[in-house]
Amino acid sequence: MISVVIPAKDEVGNIGPLMKEICQALQGVTEFEILVVDDGSQDDTFGEVIHTAEVMQCNAKAIRHERSTGQSTAISTGVLHARAQYIVTLDADGQNDPADIPAMLAQLPQIHAEHFCIAGYRKNRKDTAWKRFQSRLANKVRDALLHDGVPDTGCGLKLFPRETFLRMPYFDHMHRYIPALVRRMGGEVFIAVVNHRDRQVGVSKYTAWNRVWVGIVDIMGVIWLGRRAKIAKVARSETRWHD
């Protein structure tokens, strides 16, 4: 079973079609649940989740934050309420394609690490040239400093064990650094080339200016965390039970 966690804010026009695509992509592939965390929307994103779940007859939960607290906090809320061993995250704007999820799941039998992340890579992005330039520059700077080996950390489509996420240090914007935080734990990161689509309804919540400054601070924080990480390898363990 997997839990599909979707942080959403003012996505009433996108969340219904996205949920339908998730159901179609995973039906017959694996047992699943959909958790949509409405991060203080001003529209009826919450109601649309419930309506779509009833129409599609799928297992879904809508959780609404009293006020907007950001994408990382919304993902954290979703993971905390999830029931499955594995978490799949994707953005609510419909630009991530749920049809890519089965291929990511197919990688699981070959992964033997306790902690890992399969990170989506939007190789052929459907953004403007200016936005693609911003992302390439940001990814190069991030990789040069963090050495996480991920070409596209901004892709919302990721798969990881629930337990892995719960062991990570929480901070705002942490969702962009999940691969680096997995490596900090001694885990492995895998890349999956995924589809990228145009947003059909609404506008993006992010701009170059509201990313760049917090990004610099966040990277410095992740470097600090990485340098202070200690990975213990148990050499021996012995137990005695006396009932």
From TrEMBL:
Alphabetical list of Gene3D superfamilies matching this protein: Spore Coat Polysaccharide Biosynthesis Protein SpsA, Chain A (3.90.550.10)
Database matches in InterPro entries: Glyco_trans_2-like, Glycosyltransferase_2, Nucleotide-diphossugar_trans
Alphabetized, the UniProt keywords read: Cell membrane, Glycosyltransferase, Lipopolysaccharide biosynthesis, Membrane, Transferase, Transmembrane, Transmembrane helix
- Is this entry keyworded Transmembrane? yes
Chain ranges of the Glycosyltransferase 2-like domain: 3-165
Q: Which Pfam families match?
A: Glycos_transf_2
Q: Which CDD domains match?
A: DPM_DPG-synthase_like
Official protein name in the record: Glycosyltransferase family 2 protein
